[in-house]
């Protein structure tokens, strides 16, 4: 039986683009999420929308799950083939189709690396702002499916703010063309937005048109350290209250500062409780004005040190303090879990304190860094998945963190997606009614549950016990 | 067979090291074989998951894993890219050693390995004789005859091209015995012992001579310990770990007696392997500490030249030309040397330095990789030459003999021998101090 559908797919894409050797299946059994490891039955690399359409039709006939996978950097087990089936790759669909400078759009295939899009448009003085930390690795198809965020969220928004249109193949083999190059388009339901962030559960995205903006002329970088989280948080609030919108406004806590300093020696004050990395972009005069104003606000709020980068090299060094946060923490333990609980910006200090208390209560090691400007935090747990007892405490701690985030008006995931890992907690955020409506939407697109099954929706269909 | 290999993996490849890989994928753009194939079977995290599968007994045919490891260049570009600090190189070497030990090596390959590794590379005398043969072949006119008769047509394309790019071998007498080369400054600024290397001491003897002259000019006394041997890299990288350990001990002993500030290498590949002796011998109580003392002194000649302010104190001139630099993977990824060679080139009057795109990516030489995996090696090289061409450089500088031969091969393959040449950094710098400005 299984030979039949694989043979049919081989016929569609050609022998060499269907891998079924054990070593291949093992190499696509995972993504960047710890503890989810299941082999698919085949790894398939189509070359066109037409081939995808035919593959989907075969899979629908035989009820075979399809898991679209860009570069497999997902952190919520969104791209793991946990129910077997086909892992669909997009490296043969990695062309930029059109850069339209009149309409300020770029049309791309899903397999293009996001960083390559940035490079291509910046060469023309244009800008694609969403910048997830994995942008040099992850594909635009993956970013659209997960509605990825990044460091520039506060000022520029996230992936969904830049997707004007998508083509997608849904489970019955139909090709849906949603949106297009129009900034204004209210013709029917906004299917484009529905596909963005749908985690591959509604269809396979085969093409996308993205909005571009002019490239900012210059950039200024400031690093400020504080001896209390509250002072840092008040600085953030005051910056926003002053009608300033920095391009990035990043935060690292004490545990992260110590790890980063041990690792990079960039000269962070290790007695600080919080460090803010703030950047502004735009015309030079405005940039300079803003960054100096922000510096004086930080000083007003008792910053123990502030530095504005005089040169691009220095700016790179200061950014390194934030950029190396994950590396510095990851080197400290065998297993690293990076979460993305998010709260309204005004609740950051409360949330960071709550995370510290929860870590203490569950006797686990958690350091927090993240995007202070948009409330998107990355509580990062250093553990060892072989220690079953500790692993249970880690899971309990994260459940408590998600609960707290929701209590503060936040969400269980700001930018990584629900995937399979966080599916048990989705109902906490959207309620049973929300889950039910989402299920009905899913059913309309994919009645037989072949599109990335097990993701977003919890297997038992319900929520976890509290 | 599978069970024995699985057991060896369990005993010798630490689960901690394997689990340390969090599969984040940050290694993907750094890995040349992933970039070429876009296949996780040929990515660092893919290979780690395959090693894990062997360890856990989850793969029926372990030779699929061996094949994946064979395609790995061992360039270790994944290591600086890795947020979690995974010891990829060490695991790769151990895994290869296990496969090698459990292998029914075909007789022919066994013979080839025995000749090249055990005889040639461990014994300077034999290396000398073998290269003398090569020299005889080149000088006697046999080379011309062979070329005329197209004997080489029986070999694969890239082997023929390789034959054309091999440098002339110096006469035996020029290859020195133990000597000290004194500094040429008013007072000695540092003392160093030179690691000769097998290829560097024979095929590239001139480059060793250049390196010593540069160090002397910079104020460094240089000794060349007589009892040193091959670094063992080629043994280690191809699974002959026991042979590598013996060579390591021989070299540690040879250089202990020299009692110098630095142990100098001018071949990134050797340098990196020498630098890792402490890992190689970490479980040997008698040698672990001595290995550490040895590796602490290992340094690339370009780093020492920069430390001694060579670029500022020495007038450097060459004819106007565009120069680009191809990193030696092991120099960059293991010894962490990337700036020094570039700064030295940029300090030369007349040199117009242009960085090529992806200069930090492997050229496909990778020890004997270009002989064992010719297709992938040539695919990587052809992409490398496209990057070289964007700079319009007429000179490609490298810091490792394997890379140098590979770049010469690239020039030959793209038929640019009339307009472009490849040179070791030491030879370029020597030319620059010898040229009047």
Structure description:
The complex is a heterodimer of chains A (466) and B (437). With 466 residues, chain A is α+β, with helices and mostly antiparallel strands. Chain A has 4 domains: 2-89, Uridine Diphospho-n-acetylenolpyruvylglucosamine Reductase, domain 2, CATH 3.30.43; 96-214, Uridine Diphospho-n-acetylenolpyruvylglucosamine Reductase, domain 3, CATH 3.30.465.10; 218-321, Alpha-Beta Plaits; 327-407, Alpha-Beta Plaits, CATH 3.30.70.2740. In chain A, 37% of the residues lie in helices and 20% in strands. Chain A is built from 15 helices and 18 strands. Chain A has helices at 2-13, 22-27, 49-62, 114-122, 140-146, 153-156, 191-195, 229-241, 254-264, 284-300, 312-323, 325-330, 348-362, 388-407, 426-445, and strands spanning 18-19, 42-44, 66-69, 86-89, 96-100, 105-108, 126-127, 163-169, 175-179, 204-211, 213-214, 218-226, 248-253, 274-282, 305-308, 335-338, 365-371, 376-383. In chain A, the strands form 4 sheets. In chain A, strands 15-12-14-13-17-18-16 form a 7-stranded antiparallel sheet, with helices on both faces. In chain A, strands 5-6-10-8-9 form a 5-stranded antiparallel sheet. In chain A, helix 8 (229-241) packs across helix 10 (284-300), helix 8 packs antiparallel against helix 13 and helix 13 (348-362) runs antiparallel to helix 14 (388-407). The model of chain A is unreliable at 461-466 (pLDDT under 50). Chain B is an alpha/beta fold. Chain B folds into 4 domains: 2-101, Alpha-helical ferredoxin (Fumarate Reductase Iron-sulfur Protein, Chain B, domain 2); 107-165, no CATH class; 172-306, Rossmann fold, CATH 3.40.50; 310-434, Rossmann fold (3-Layer(aba) Sandwich). Helix content of chain B is 55%, strand content 9%. Chain B has a 5-stranded mixed sheet with strand order 1-3-2-4-5. A 4-stranded parallel sheet of chain B has the order 7-6-8-9, with helices on both faces. In chain B, helix 25 links the parallel strand 8 and strand 9 (421-424). Chain B is globular and about 65 Å long. Chains A and B meet through helix 2 and helix 12 of A and helix 2, helix 4 and helix 5 of B. Chain B: This is Glycolate oxidase iron-sulfur subunit. Chain B: It is an enzyme of class 1 (oxidoreductase).
């Amino acid at each position: 039986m299984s030979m039949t559908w694989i043979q049919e797919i081989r016929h569609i894409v050609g022998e060499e683009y269907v891998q079924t050797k054990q070593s291949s299946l093992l190499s696509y059994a995972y993504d960047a999420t710890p503890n989810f490891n299941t082999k698919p039955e085949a790894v398939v690399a189509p070359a066109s929308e037409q081939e995808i359409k035919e593959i989907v039709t075969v899979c629908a006939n035989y009820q075979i799950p399809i898991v679209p996978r860009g570069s497999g950097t997902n952190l919520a087990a969104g791209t793991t083939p946990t129910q077997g089936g086909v892992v669909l790759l997009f490296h043969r669909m990695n062309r930029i189709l059109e850069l339209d400078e009149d309409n300020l759009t770029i049309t791309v295939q899903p397999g293009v690396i996001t960083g390559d899009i940035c490079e291509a448009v910046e060469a023309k003085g244009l800008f694609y702002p969403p910048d997830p930390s994995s942008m040099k690795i992850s594909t635009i198809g993956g970013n659209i499916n997960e509605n990825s965020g990044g460091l520039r969220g506060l000022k520029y928004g996230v992936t969904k703010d830049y997707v004007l249109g998508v083509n997608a193949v849904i489970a019955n083999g139909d090709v849906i063309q949603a949106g297009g190059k129009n900034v204004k388009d209210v013709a029917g339901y906004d299917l484009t937005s529905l596909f963005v962030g749908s985690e591959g559960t509604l269809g396979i995205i085969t093409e996308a048109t993205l909005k571009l903006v002019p490239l900012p002329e210059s950039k200024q970088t400031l690093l400020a350290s504080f001896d209390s989280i509250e002072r840092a948080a008040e600085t953030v609030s005051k910056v926003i209250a002053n009608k300033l919108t920095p391009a990035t406004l990043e935060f690292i806590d004490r545990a992260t500062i110590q790890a980063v300093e041990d690792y990079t020696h960039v000269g962070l004050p290790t007695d600080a409780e919080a460090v803010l990395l703030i950047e502004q972009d735009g015309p030079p005069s405005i940039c300079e004005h803003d960054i100096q104003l922000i510096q004086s606000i930080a000083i007003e709020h008792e910053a123990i040190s502030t530095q504005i980068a005089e040169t691009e090299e220095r700016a790179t060094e200061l950014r390194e303090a934030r950029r190396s946060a994950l590396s510095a923490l990851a080197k400290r333990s065998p297993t690293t879990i990076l979460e993305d609980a998010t709260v309204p910006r005004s609740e950051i200090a409360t949330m960071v304190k709550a995370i510290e208390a929860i870590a203490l209560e569950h006797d686990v090691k958690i350091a927090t860094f993240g995007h202070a400007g948009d409330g998107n935090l990355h509580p990062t747990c250093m553990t060892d998945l072989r220690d079953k007892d500790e692993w249970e405490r880690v899971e309990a701690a994260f459940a408590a963190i998600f609960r707290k985030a929701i209590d503060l008006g936040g969400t269980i995931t700001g930018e990584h997606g629900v995937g399979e890992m966080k599916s048990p907690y989705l109902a906490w955020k959207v309620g049973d009614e929300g889950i039910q409506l989402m299920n009905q939407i899913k059913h309309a697109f994919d009645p037989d549950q072949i599109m990335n099954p097990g993701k977003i929706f919890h297997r038992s269909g319900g929520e976890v016990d509290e | 067979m599978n069970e024995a290999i699985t057991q060896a993996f369990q005993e010798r490849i630490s689960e901690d090291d394997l689990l340390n890989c969090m599969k984040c994928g940050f290694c993907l753009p750094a890995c040349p074989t992933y970039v070429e194939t876009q296949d996780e079977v040929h990515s660092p995290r893919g290979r780690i998951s395959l090693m894990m599968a062997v360890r856990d007994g989850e793969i029926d045919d372990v030779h699929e894993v061996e094949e994946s490891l064979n395609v790995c260049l061992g360039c270790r570009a994944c290591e600086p890219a890795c947020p979690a600090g995974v010891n990829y190189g060490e695991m790769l070497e151990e895994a290869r050693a296990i496969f090698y030990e459990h292998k029914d090596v075909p007789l022919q390959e066994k013979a080839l390995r025995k000749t090249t590794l055990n005889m040639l590379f461990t014994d300077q005398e034999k290396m000398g004789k073998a290269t003398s043969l090569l020299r005889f072949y080149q000088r006697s006119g046999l080379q011309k005859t062979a070329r005329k008769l197209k004997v080489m047509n029986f070999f694969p394309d890239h082997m023929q091209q390789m034959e054309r790019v091999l440098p002339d071998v110096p006469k035996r007498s020029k290859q020195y015995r133990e000597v000290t080369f004194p500094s040429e400054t008013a007072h000695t600024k540092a003392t160093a012992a030179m690691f000769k290397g097998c290829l560097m001491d024979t095929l590239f003897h001139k480059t060793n001579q250049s390196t010593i002259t540069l160090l002397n000019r910079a104020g460094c006394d240089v000794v060349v310990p007589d009892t040193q041997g091959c670094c063992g890299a080629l043994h280690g990288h191809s699974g002959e770990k026991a042979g590598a350990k013996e060579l390591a001990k021989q070299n540690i002993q040879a250089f202990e007696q020299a009692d110098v500030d630095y142990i100098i290498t001018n071949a990134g590949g050797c340098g990196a392997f020498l630098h890792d002796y402490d890992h190689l011998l970490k479980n040997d109580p008698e040698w672990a500490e001595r290995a550490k003392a040895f590796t602490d002194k290992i340094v690339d000649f370009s780093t020492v030249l920069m430390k001694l302010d060579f670029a500022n104190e020495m007038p450097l001139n060459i004819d106007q030309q565009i120069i680009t630099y191809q990193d030696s993977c092991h120099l960059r990824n293991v010894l962490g040397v990337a700036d020094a060679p570039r700064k030295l080139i940029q300090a030369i009057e007349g040199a117009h330095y242009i960085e090529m795109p992806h200069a930090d990516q492997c050229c496909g030489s990778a020890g004997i990789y270009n002989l064992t995996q010719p297709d992938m090696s040539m695919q990587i090289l052809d992409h490398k030459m496209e990057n070289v061409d964007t700079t319009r450089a007429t000179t490609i500088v490298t810091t490792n003999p394997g890379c140098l031969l590979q770049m010469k091969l690239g020039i030959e393959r793209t038929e640019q021998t009339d307009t472009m040449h490849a040179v070791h950094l030491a030879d370029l710098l020597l030319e620059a101090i010898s040229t009047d400005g």
